[in-house]
Amino acid sequence: MPAPIDRDVRVREIRDAAFRLLSERGPAALTIRGLATELGGSSTLVTHFFANRAELLKGITESAIEDYDEEIAQLEQGADARQRLRILLEWMLPLDEEQVRAERGRVMLIGHAESDLNVGEFFVAMDRKMRELLRSHLTGLVDEEDVDETVEFLRVFTNGVVLSVAEHPTLWDTKRQQKLLQHTLELLGVA
C-alpha cells in the first residue's frame, strides 16, 4: 500500500518543478507530461492534483500566494516597521540563484499573458498580492496620501530589478541589488 501523500507538500513540489521547467525551457515545456517527467513519475502524479494546464497555473498561483504570507511572517518576526519593509523588498528581489531561476520562469510567462492558459490570471493575482503586501508595509511609514504612489513606485522598482536580473544575472548580483534597494529606501525616507 503506497504511503499517504501530503497534498500541500506535493502541490509545492509540482509548483517548484513548474517554475524550473519555465525558467529552463520556456512555456512550451510546461505540459502535464513534461511536468510529470520532471517530477520522475507518470502524468497522474500531476493530474491527481491538476486536471489540465490551466488548472495547474491557477493552482500553482494559489499555492505560491498562500506560502507568501507564511514566508514573510517568519522572516519579519521581531522586526520594526522599517525593517519589515526592507525584508519584504529583499524578499521580492531575486537575491539568490533559486530566486533568479523562479523569476526567469515568471518572465518567460509574460509573452503568454493573453493566451488561453490562464497566464493573465496568474500575473493579475501575483500583482494584486504584491501590491497588497507593499500597501500593508507602507502604511504608517509614508503619509497616507502617498501610499498608492509609493506602492506604484516600488512595484516598478522591484519589477525593473527582476527583469534586469533575468536579462543580465552576472551584472545584477546580490550586492548591487541591495545597494540599489538601500538607495531607494533612503530616497523614500524610510531607510
Automatic annotation (TrEMBL):
It comes from the Bacteria. InterPro entries: BetI_C (IPR039538), Homeodomain-like_sf (IPR009057), HTH-type_TetR-like_transc_reg (IPR050109), HTH_TetR (IPR001647), Tet_transcr_reg_TetR-rel_C_sf (IPR036271). The keyword 4Fe-4S does not apply. PROSITE patterns: HTH_TETR_2 (PS50977). Residues 8-68 form the HTH tetR-type domain. One of its GO terms (molecular function) is DNA-binding transcription factor activity. Gene3D superfamilies: Tetracycline Repressor, domain 2 (1.10.357.10). Coiled coil: none annotated. Residues 31-50 bind DNA. Keywords: DNA-binding, Repressor, Transcription, Transcription regulation. This is TetR family transcriptional regulator.
